[in-house]
Structure formats: C-alpha cells, structure tokens
Amino acid sequence: MKIVGVGCGPGMLTEEAIGAISRAEALCGSERAIDLARDHIRDGCIVRVIDDYRALRNLPDTTVVLSTGDPMLAGLGYLEGEVIPGISSLQVTLARLKIPMARVSVVVAHGRDHPVAVREALSEVARGKVIFLIADPSFDVRDFAAQFLPETPGISITLCERLGYPDERVETGTAEAPPIPGHDLFVILVDPGIRGKRE
C-alpha cells in the first residue's frame, strides 16, 4: 500500500506523488483528496471514496490511499505501507508568514478533546514556541484566544483558511480580537511575538 499526500490545496502535489497516483490501479481517499488528485488519475483506475477509515487497514497492498496535506501531519501515515509526503498546511502557513519551522510546535485539536489540545498549546506558548494548531469545524477560536488573556496581551493569532485555494484567507489578530473562521477548513498559528497583519 502507498499512502500519498496530495497537499493541502490545489497544485501542491509533488512529482513523486503524481507518479504514484498516475500509476495506481486502485486508489481511495476523501472526496477532497480525490478532487486534488483528479487530474493525475489514469483512465481505468478504480476510485473509491473512504467511508470507513477503520477498514483502510484491510485494503489490498496495491492500493494507493490519498491523504490530504501530508500523511504524517494528522493524516493517514499511521497505515502500514510506503508514505509519500505531501505539501502540508504547516509548510504553507509558515511560508506565507515567513516563520522558521524550528520555532514551531504542532498541536492537533482535530478530532481530539479540545480542552486537552488547548492546554498543550498554552504550555508550548509559555515555553516561547509558536503554535501551529490543526483545528476542526467545532473548534471555538474565540474561546481559545481568550485563554491567552490577560497574561500574554501581545500575542498574535493568525487564521489560515483554505490554503492554496483561490479564496485562501490569512488574517492575523490578537487574543482580544482574533480572526474568526468562515469555513470548516482552517488552521491557527499562535505567535508569542508581535506580528503585523499580512498584506
């Protein structure tokens, strides 16, 4: 089995990923992952939308499994098989904001207990780390931002929404006035230093 990262948005497939997709006889993924790879899926390839993630472990060894973003960043990299990395929302966010990856700690709130993820984020910010938080649609950004008041009033909170899509939005606010998501597909970056709004 190959687990192939299709990137976090359009045009973010690597050459290695394109090669694996174009040679696949059978592949599966979320609707969004399949859509991101569609231009490289050959005629005759059996394509299935994943409807039961628990069943992925039982797929034939010849299957290509598509994972949005990078499989090793809250993706499907836990499956047995070769992992082909993709361009992740982490990479794109840091490139947009020009933040070195070495300054960042990743916190996953997607599909997890949000209070636990928030505690992890607070702990990492207290250590001076920039937090990259992978959210899910039910993650409350206002409640999250309020956790940084009043102890860290200079903190910045950046919302990165639909990265790589034509309607991409990258907006920076403060703990007092954080940017609020308008779409389910978003991540949050918390910087203990002060960063200006992206032009």
Folded structure, characterized:
With 199 residues, the chain is of the alpha/beta class. The strands form two sheets. Strands 3-2-4-1-5 form a five-stranded parallel β-sheet, covered by helices on one side. Strands 6-7-10-8-9 form a five-stranded mixed β-sheet, with helices on both faces. 38% of the residues are buried. The C terminus is likely disordered.
Describe, in short, the structure shown.
The longest helix has 13 residues, at 114-126. The chain is built from five helices and ten strands. The chain is elongated and about 60 Å long.
- Fraction of residues in helices? 10-25%
CATH class of the largest domain: Alpha Beta
User: How many E strands?
Assistant: 10
Between the first and last Cα atoms, what is the distance in angstroms? Answer: 43 Å
Element-by-element helix/strand order: EHEHEEEHEHEHEEE
Beta content comes to 15-25%
CATH homologous superfamily designation of the largest domain:
Tetrapyrrole methylase, C-terminal domain
Oligomerization: single chain
| CATH domain fold name of the largest domain | Methyltransferase, Cobalt-precorrin-4 Transmethylase, Domain 2
Cα shape? elongated
Mean pLDDT: 92
Poorly predicted parts: 195-199
- The radius of gyration computed from the alpha-carbon positions, rounded to a whole number of angstroms, is 18 Å
The major sheet is characterized as: 5 strands, parallel
